Prior knowledge:
Layout: E1 8-12, H1 19-30, E2 33-36, H2 37-51, H3 58-66, E3 70-74, E4 80-84, E5 87-88, H4 96-105, H5 109-124, E6 128-132, H6 135-139, E7 145-150, H7 153-166, H8 173-189, E8 202-205, H9 211-226
Parallel strand pairs: 1-6, 1-7, 2-6, 7-8
Antiparallel strand pairs: 3-4, 4-5
Amino acid sequence: MKRPKGLVIAIDGPVGAGKSTVAKLVARKLGYLYVDTGAMYRAVALKALRLGMDINDPIVMAMLAEATDIQLQQQVDGSVRVFLDGEDVTEAIRTPEVSEASSIVSAHEGVRKVLAERQKAMAELGGVVMEGRDIQTVIAPDAEVKIFLTASLEERAKRRWLELQQKGISVSYEEVLQEVKERDERDKTRAIAPLRKAPDAVEIDTTGMMPEEVAEKIVELACKRAGV
Length: 228
């Protein structure tokens, strides 16, 4: 399938595997649009928390997702800002509270249906690097390049903890480790679009690897796939 703007690169994997950092680097190297699908679920979760809504109610959450405008806007430097109903919430959606809530919100079938349609529309034209939990299995099963990133539980928890420390969010490593364990369990066992590696995806264990190394590997695969 020839797409107008280029390939679709699908990057999936558990929390802390390095998806966001690597996907951004790959997008920058190829001049593609970086699409963080998880940010869309986080935006819905943030809105629900702000409104005091029950994030465990699947019908209410699906209605909220339908009524929510989420825009991913690429900046001149290649970075992407997340806008929720016109407000820049790029930093606000990265707190531990929103992370926990988004894991619950993203398990609702109605929410996934609403956001999946928007994500599929983004993929149609190509020229995108999409990262999340179900890109290669649900959103873009026909993606030209499928990558499944993983890393040890301890490494992923450490990365997540350091990320929060850099943002000034005080939380212990033990708390983050437990949160990552719980996220893994929810993501793998949810009934709708569980986290799993597509049969034709290339698995890369990023434990001990620098993001730049991982990105280079993916760019090489993309160039090979494009015949460059």
